Amino acid sequence: MKSPKFAATLVAMLLATSAAAQSFPTKPVRLVVGFAPGGVSDIMGRVLAQKMTETLGQPVIVENRAGAGGMIGTDYVAKAAPDGYVFALTSPTQMAIVPNLNKATPYDPIKDFTPIGGIAMAPNILSINVSLPFRSLKDLVEYAKANPGKLTFGSSGPGSVGHLSGEVLRTSTGADLTHVPYKSAGAAYPDMIAGNISMVFDTLPSAIQHINSGKARAIALMAARRAPILPDVPTFAEAGYPEATLHFWIGLHGPARMPQPVVQTLNTALNKALTTSELRERFATLGAEPLVISPKELDQMTRASLDQITKTIQAAGIKSQ
Question: Disulfide engineering: 273 pairs with which of 51, 117, 206, 259, CB 3.0-4.6 Å?
Answer without folding.
Answer: 51
